[in-house]
Fold:
Amino acid sequence: MRRSTIALLLLIVVIALWVVGGLLEVRALTNLAIMTAVVGILILLYYYLRFEEKKTDAKLIAILGTLAALSVAGRLLFAAIPNVKPSTFIVIISGYVFGPLSGFMVGATTALVSNIFFGQGPWTIWQMLAWGLAGLVAGLLGPKRLLDGRWRLAFYCAAWGFLFGWIMNLYFVLGFVHPVNFSSFFATYAASVWFDALHAGGNFVFAFLLGPALIAMLRRYQARFFFESAPAGLPGLEAGKREAGA
Structure:
């Protein structure tokens, strides 16, 4: 049995225990902060194991590592400007060009590595999930090229500025807000709206100015990568495309 399958089964078991614990009012199984952290860790473990099991070509690993490093460097470079970072934009482009699993890996790795400098904590799990999802969803849109076009890409990246903030707000509510009700939930989200707007605005600018050029550059690399990887004949080329987009 694959290790990713084991991680997925563990995830299902933990969610089942969470539900049963809620019904039986078992305190250890109803702690929202702990249970969501465990679920998040298992989701991340599943995707990292999936990527490892794919036995991805070294050239694709190299470009994904470069994109993750660029995303980390961008977060460090713009550290002085609250919530204005090119990281989300780079993660989205990575997934859009190279596929959902690749996008998830670039996003999750961005949070894990950059927090070596910004500080590790339980928030790292949620940042890994948020950026990972940004890359994964963009990867699902890639085959039909739904984000081609400067304006469409810019607005999509801006939307993820708000989505990222809402995911991190959920972490804060579940871990630190008591009691959790509509009023506390609404207050938490309302308090972060300006920071989320800065994130969205930064994403819009980065995507509008740099997005089409970066996508074109990565697609040229991708075409060369598949061409060199494929044996003689087009069937190998198509197989390479399917493998990288998985």
